């Protein structure tokens, strides 16, 4: 039993070590909320992960499909944390496409110099209502 425990790590701690979340409590909240799946199954904060496990992480409405490569011993620098996982290329591309769609949507919004006045706020609300109908 202790042998497998030494070769695995709690998923909330691993997410914090790998710098997916700023605090361990944020990682635990995300796992409890169903935003993290380990090998296709919904995880609990105490679920153990080991090298070779596949994690699906929904963070900031973006999906990360990663494979655990190593178990970090500490929360170190970002360069060190990135060595602990590898990400599927399709995951990276789909996230980049989603970010591009968001940028395009923002370019269509009315732009003002400074704080919007009453008329511009009405236009923004009207635009949002029309976008919601589609």
What does this structure look like?
The chain has one domain (about 1-134): Structural Genomics Hypothetical 15.5 Kd Protein In mrcA-pckA Intergenic Region, Chain A, CATH 3.10.290.10. The strands form two sheets. Strands 3-2-5-6-7 form a five-stranded antiparallel beta sheet. It is elongated. Helix content is about 45%, strand content about 20%. The protein has helices at about 1-5, 10-15, 25-30, 80, 90-110, 120-134; strands spanning about 10, 35-40, 40, 50, 55-60, 60-70, 85. The model has no long low-confidence stretch (mean pLDDT about 90). Helix 2 (about 10-15) crosses helix 3 (about 25-30). By secondary structure, it is of the alpha+beta class. It has six helices and seven strands.
Keywords:
134 residues, 7 strands, alpha+beta, Structural Genomics Hypothetical 15.5 Kd Protein In mrcA-pckA Intergenic Region, Chain A, single chain
* Weakly predicted, low-confidence segments: none
CATH topology: Structural Genomics Hypothetical 15.5 Kd Protein In mrcA-pckA Intergenic Region, Chain A
Record the strand order, biggest sheet.
3-2-5-6-7
Secondary-structure class: alpha+beta
Helicity range of the residues? Answer: 40-55%
> Tell me, what is the CATH class?
Alpha Beta
What's the total helix number? 6
Query: For the residues shown, what is the average pLDDT?
Result: 89
The H-level CATH homologous superfamily, spelled out, is RNA-binding S4 domain
* Estimated radius of gyration: 20 Å
Largest sheet: 5 strands, antiparallel
So what's the oligomer here?
A: single chain
SSE order in H/E notation?
Answer: HEHHEEEEEHEHH
Return the CATH architecture.
Roll
